[in-house]
């Protein structure tokens, strides 16, 4: 997987503490896999290429892995593990996985102290959490298992998508409309070009 395990585990723990960590298993005819998600993010992993460590991290928080065709939410709430109505992954996260075909560009500009990274797309600009940029680790690819180089990021209906044959990462893109004048200016400029030293 092209995702840094320590950071993904931290993101999963945050979701577990705040609102819940959603885990589902899709045993469709094409590629069985697991989806792990929280507020504003999701990771889908091909079951055949899923690492033992990633499985262990899910079990550590949730206590178990879902059965085929099931989905649950694990949280620090008193009731702990809640089974959820399973909806086919393609429909459940349609706005997440359906790429528009246009590439998105994660710029080098970080808005501090919130730790948000500006992303530019053909549809407009927005931001994602810096933690999701730190999560990307192409050097973690397992070529022995046939894992390929990740492609993207691409713009989707609700954010950006980066993926390869082993897993996909979706991150929701935010845009504070109270700052509409700021976003209009950002949409018109090439941020990385402006940040180059003279």
Name the poorly predicted regions: 87-92
Q: Helicity level, as a percent range?
A: 25-40%
Task: Tell me the domain tally.
Answer: 1
Task: Indicate the radius of gyration in whole angstroms.
Answer: 17 Å
Please state roughly what percent of the residues sit in beta strands, choosing from under 5%, 5-15%, 15-25%, 25-35%, 35-45% or over 45%: 25-35%
Distance between the termini: 38 Å
Give the integer mean of the pLDDT values.
80
Instruction: State the strand order across the main sheet.
Output: 5-4-1-2-3-12-11-10-6
Order of helices and strands: HEEEHEEHHEEEEHEEEHH
What's the count of strands?
12
The gross shape turns out to be globular
Distinct helical segment count: 7
Largest sheet: 9 strands, antiparallel
Structural class: alpha+beta
Could you describe the 3D structure shown?
The protein has 198 residues and is an alpha+beta fold. The chain has one domain. The protein has seven helices and twelve strands. The strands form two sheets. It has a nine-stranded antiparallel sheet with strand order 5-4-1-2-3-12-11-10-6. Strands 7-8-9 form a three-stranded antiparallel sheet. Strand 2 (33-38) and strand 3 form a beta hairpin. Helix 1 (5-17) runs parallel beside helix 2. The chain is globular, with a radius of gyration of 17 Å. Residues 87-92 have low confidence and may be disordered.
Notable characteristics:
single chain; 198 residues; alpha+beta; 9-stranded antiparallel β-sheet; 34% strand
Annotate the secondary structure layout.
Layout: H1 5-17, E1 21-26, E2 33-38, E3 41-46, H2 52-62, E4 71-74, E5 81-84, H3 89-92, H4 94-97, E6 99-103, E7 105-111, E8 116-121, E9 124-129, H5 130-135, E10 151-156, E11 159-163, E12 167-172, H6 180-188, H7 191-194
Helix pairs in contact: 1-2
């Amino acid at each position: 997987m092209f995702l840094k395990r320590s950071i993904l585990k931290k993101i999963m723990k945050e979701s577990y503490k705040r609102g819940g960590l959603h885990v589902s298993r899709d045993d469709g005819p094409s590629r069985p896999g697991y989806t792990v998600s929280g507020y504003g993010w999701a990771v889908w992993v091909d079951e055949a290429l899923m690492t033992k460590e990633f499985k262990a991290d899910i079990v550590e928080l949730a206590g178990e892995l879902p059965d085929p065709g099931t989905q649950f939410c694990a949280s620090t709430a008193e009731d702990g593990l809640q089974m959820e109505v399973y909806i086919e992954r393609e429909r459940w996260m349609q706005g997440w996985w359906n790429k528009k075909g246009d590439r998105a560009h994660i710029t080098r500009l970080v808005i501090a102290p919130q730790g948000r990274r500006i992303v530019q797309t053909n549809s407009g600009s927005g931001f994602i959490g810096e933690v999701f940029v730190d999560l990307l680790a192409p050097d973690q690819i397992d070529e022995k298992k046939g894992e390929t180089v990740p492609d993207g990021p691409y713009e989707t209906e609700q954010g950006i998508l980066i993926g390869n044959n082993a897993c996909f990462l979706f991150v929701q893109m935010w845009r504070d409309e109270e700052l509409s004048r700021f976003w209009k200016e950002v949409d018109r400029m090439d941020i990385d070009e402006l940040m180059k030293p003279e």
